[in-house]
Amino acid sequence: MSDTRSYPTRPFLAVSAAIVRDGKLLVVRRARPPAHGLYTMPGGVVEAGETLEEAVTREVHEETGLTITPAALAGFRETIVRDDKDRVERHFVILCFAARWRAGEPVLNEELSEARWLDPAELAGLPTTPGLSDIAAMAYARLKEAG
């Protein structure tokens, strides 16, 4: 089976969630490429017919088993990976939501090798996807604004 996300003809729209529980942020470690071994936020590609909030809620549940409530958009990241011939191998536009934990404990799927609830200051000591600490800071600000 070929990976239709490799060498795309267009960018893929994805979502992720900065999930906060008792002041702690959930980070997950990727178990396979892309971003193998890096800490990031759970999420994935938006499916046709889904709203962004439906997509982020579904993706978080599929990856971690958690139930969340998205509160606000915290920002975005764009990931473009090029191969050694400078061809676009992957291209994702990722909208990250600030979200509140509602229920469950992390139960990882095959895409993730670890989950941690941690203080945002602890991100500095971890290998993360680019911009993770900035998105986390925006998520905390959005959650504070949302009340």
Explain the overall architecture.
With 147 residues, this protein is of the alpha+beta class. 19% of the residues lie in helices and 41% in strands. It has helices at residues 52-64, 132-146; strands at 12-21, 24-30, 39-40, 43-45, 67-82, 88-103, 112-118. Strands 1, 2, 3, 4, 5, 6 and 7 form a seven-stranded mixed β-sheet that branches. The chain is globular and about 45 Å long.
List keywords for this structure.
41% strand; 7 strands; alpha+beta; 147 residues; 19% helix; 7-stranded mixed beta sheet
Write the layout of secondary structure elements.
Blueprint: E1 12-21, E2 24-30, E3 39-40, E4 43-45, H1 52-64, E5 67-82, E6 88-103, E7 112-118, H2 132-146
Parallel strand pairs: 1-6
Antiparallel strand pairs: 1-2, 1-4, 2-3, 2-7, 5-6
What is shown here, in short?
This protein is α+β, with helices and mostly antiparallel strands. The protein contains two helices and seven strands; from the N terminus they run ββββαβββα.
Low-confidence segments, given as residue ranges, are none
Tell me how many strands there are.
Answer: 7
One letter per element, helices H and strands E, the order comes to EEEEHEEEH
Largest sheet: 7 strands, mixed
Helix and strand content put the structural class at: alpha+beta
Give the CA-CA distance, first to last residue: 46 Å
- Rg result: 15 Å
The multimeric state of the shown protein is: single chain
Mean pLDDT: 94
Molecular shape: globular
Helix segment tally: 2
Strand content: 35-45%
Helix coverage percent? 10-25%
